[in-house]
Design a protein that fits this description.
By secondary structure, this protein is α/β, with parallel strands linked by helices. Helix 15 links the parallel strand 5 and strand 6. Helix 5 packs antiparallel against helix 8. The protein is globular and about 95 Å long.
Length: about 700
């Protein structure tokens, strides 16, 4: 062997050794976190942590010196995790107000606010009073939070108040976390804590508005934001943000257009909507490509689902438009009554980023068929195809103002949800956003429909066709890289067939093609953003640390020119428990948790043990059992021997905290119309006066 070859071998060996040591250090840190969460600070000795990690105490001492060194490294790891989450959110923020929100969301995120993480943080903060090493880490952590808040608040409040406001907001964040951690009643969760902190920030800004030299309020938002291709990191477009003036103009135009639109017969409206559907189909390839660029989803999905399913929806309601009617009520020889089904007026739709065009169609089609006007706000991460839908609507003959698209962040959405002239809001989004929309709508008693998140069960019984069940599980977890609200990410498999199921599942998962979303061969594309990818990876880390067995995947994919994108390999965990975070919390990424069961009553009870209730699936050859189990599952949308197929003719929606109301089917008509009762007297009027 020549010298250069020997040097290469030594370098490679050293690199592998360093990588192995880093993995071992990380395993020990994760064991420390688990120990602190379960048995507390004092009981977590070096020997106990070493035993948990399956190594000797001497090896722990080798890496960290002593217990204080191990604890310091663990605290630095936790602080760095929050710092990474903050940095990712700050990078995506388009305005000072969004940057403040980024700091709040990072520090009160579910992964930090959950009981295990909170108990670990509390243990450290309590010991920082007695340890200089821990106190230094704490000081850096708190200084970084105040600095981020101060920088974000300076354009929003008077210069002399920026530091005071930053300290106050930081104190609120710490206080919310501490109170929830110490409370035995679970007073707040992550979502409500963030809402409280956000309201406090709004009050701070209102109490100290920053003014220009001439005394006019400074605009507290950026005028534009960028939308980025999540597969490459390249900017696709710069989008203007709509503020109060733009929303007022949109509402005025909608009111005007709705008068003409509702005066048309249902058949006339149906013909216009039919033209919209036809144009969508004719432009399928162009729109699918744009959807792929904006979402990171594979072109093999967007070209056959996203655009065409939207066209199918508009077609369906175009056909229903002429059938809308009330009923005649016989009230005897002296009177009769009838009902009129009338439009609500101006309604608002707020979309999610996983199916931008489809969701815009799902909301606008029934709204317009019923004679309403809709103002639609797409998610800021995927703003492009809704604009194209608006262009197609105008081309097809939809009157001006009847379908409009506004762009922006939460502030723009709130201008819609709080507007007194908007009669109804339809949201697709997360539970926390749904609660905010309901709160805003209550001030004017708006009607609300909410299609929110889920943590849905998929149950595979021992008599199931395993090949079909595996196909269903793949559709329920990895379609659109797992970014589907109805996904069946809790896969309950009967113990007698679990080994065979897992063998077939892993073999098919490992053949899935991860790559450029524009390549027709690609089956798994990019996640929507760096911050979302970081969230998904953090859940994978929690799954491993919590004792779940990783069967495949579990890492960011960077080879093959994918390093600039947000790609995560499809991940399967086995040996999962019902109390694990990866089992209880919505991840919205390509992460499947497989759980074992032995009894029908047992699995139904476990499947229902969740605050969500969006969807559920059952695989069995015994159709009597299939119907029986589905009837007992607390979910709004269910499948027997299939998963995630959503024909327009069937209503779609959830129960519990997965939403209110239904999209699609005839049920949606109820949410976009109001009934007027009319009594008609045929005789004289008798009065006792």
């Amino acid at each position: 062997m020549d010298i250069s070859a020997r040097q290469d071998e030594v370098a490679a060996t050293g690199g592998r050794r360093r990588e192995s040591e880093e993995v071992r250090r990380q395993q020990l840190i994760e064991a420390t976190i688990d120990s602190l969460a379960e048995i507390g600070f004092n009981a977590s000795t070096l020997a106990q942590i070493a035993g948990r990690a399956g190594v000797s105490p001497g090896l722990v001492a080798h890496y960290f010196g002593d217990k204080d060194g191990l604890l310091e490294a663990t605290l630095r790891f936790l602080a760095a995790r929050v710092a990474r989450g903050t940095a990712l959110r700050l990078a995506a923020a388009a305005s000072p107000r969004e940057r403040v929100e980024a700091v709040i969301e990072a520090n009160l995120a579910p992964e930090e606010f959950g009981k295990p993480s909170s108990s670990v943080w509390l243990a450290f903060w309590g010991q920082a009073l007695h340890s200089e090493r821990l106190r230094r880490v704490q000081k850096v952590y708190q200084s970084r939070m105040r600095s981020n808040l101060r920088h974000a608040l300076r354009p929003l409040v008077r210069e002399e108040d920026a530091d005071r406001a930053a300290i106050a907001v930081a104190a609120i964040i710490d206080g919310l976390w501490l109170r929830s951690t110490l409370s035995a009643t679970g007073e707040t969760d992550s979502t409500s804590a963030r809402a409280i902190a956000t309201a406090f920030v709004d009050a701070q800004i209102a109490a100290s508005p920053r003014t220009s030299v001439i005394g006019a309020p400074v605009v507290r938002r950026a005028s534009h934001f960028e939308t980025v291709n999540p597969a490459t990191g390249e900017m696709l477009a710069e989008i203007a943000i709509d503020g109060e003036a733009e929303i007022e103009a949109a509402v005025a135009a909608a009111r005007q257009g709705q008068k003409a639109w509702s005066a048309m017969t249902g058949a006339e409206r149906g013909r216009v909507l039919k033209r919209v559907a036809d144009i969508l189909r004719s432009r399928n390839d162009e729109l699918a490509r744009l959807e792929t660029l904006d979402t990171g989803k594979p072109i093999q999905e967007t070209s056959v689902v996203d655009v065409l399913s939207g066209a199918d929806c508009i077609d369906y309601y175009a056909g229903l438009a002429a059938t809308l009617s009330g009923e005649h009520v016989d009230l005897g020889p002296g009177a009769f009554g009838y009902t009129r089904r009338e439009p609500l007026g101006v309604v608002a739709g707020i979309g999610a980023w996983n199916y931008p065009l489809q969701i815009a169609c799902w909301k606008s089609a029934p709204a317009l068929a019923c004679g309403n006007a809709m103002i639609f706000k797409p998610a800021e991460l995927t703003p492009l195809t809704a604009v194209k839908l608006a262009e197609i609507m105008r081309e097809a003959g939809v009157p001006d103002g009847v379908f409009q698209v506004v762009q922006g962040f939460a502030e723009t959405g709130r201008l819609l949800t709080r507007h007194p002239d908007i009669a109804k809001v339809s949201l697709t989004g997360e539970v926390g956003t749904g609660k905010k929309v309901m709160a805003d709508a209550s001030a004017t008693l708006k009607q609300v429909t909410l299609e929110l998140g889920g943590k849905s069960p998929l149950i595979v019984f021992e008599d199931a066709d395993l090949d079909d069940a595996v196909s269903g599980a793949l559709l329920a977890n990895f379609y659109s890289a797992g970014e589907v609200c109805s996904n069946g990410t809790r896969v309950f498999v009967h113990e007698s067939v679990r080994p065979a199921f897992l063998e077939k599942l892993v073999a098919r998962v490992e053949k899935m093609v991860i790559g450029d979303p524009l390549d027709p061969a690609t089956q798994v594309g990019a996640l929507i953003s760096p911050s979302h990818m970081e969230k998904v990876l953090s859940y994978i880390a929690r799954g491993r640390a919590g004792g779940a067995k990783l069967l495949t995947g579990g890492y960011q994919v960077t080879e093959g020119g994918l390093a600039r994108g947000c790609f995560v390999a499809p991940t399967v965990f086995d040996d999962c428990r019902d109390d694990m975070a990866i089992v209880r919390e919505e991840i919205f990424g390509p992460v499947m948790a497989v759980l074992s069961f032995e009894d029908e009553a047992e699995v139904v009870s476990r499947a229902n043990d969740t605050r969500f209730g969006l969807a559920a699936g059952v695989f069995t050859r015994d159709l009597a059992r299939g119907h029986r189990v589905i009837a007992r599952l607390e979910a709004g949308t269910c499948w027997i021997n299939h998963y995630n197929v959503t024909p327009i003719e069937l209503p779609f929606g959830g129960v519990k905290q997965s939403g209110l109301g239904r999209e699609n089917g005839k049920a949606a008509i109820e949410h976009y119309t109001q009934l007027k009762s009319v009594y008609v007297n045929l005789g004289s009027v008798e009065a006792p006066y």
